[in-house]
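Technical note accompanying the year-one report. For the benefit of new consortium partners, we illustrate the data format agreed upon in the data management plan: each record pairs a sequence with a structure-token string. No post-processing was applied to the example shown here.
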Amino acid sequence: MEGLFAFLSFQNIVNIFVILGGVSAFIIYATQRRASVKSAFTMVINQIDGIEEVISKLRSTQADGKLCNEEVFKSDQILSRNF
């Protein structure tokens, strides 16, 4: 019984809470990091999808199998940037 009381001293309880706080902080950090990496991958995939859509729109304006420069420079994507 004395061993249990010695283990439950104030200093040991404080150390246990410090360890629990550190472990929970690490778990939260790892979870947030995983979420940010997943968000970055999602953004890249969305940009690739947008680029593929633009390419398909530009290919639909081809003349004789060649992309006309006029069609490229007057496309909605370039005109929307106020050039």
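Partners are asked to follow this layout when depositing records. The radius of gyration is 30 Å.
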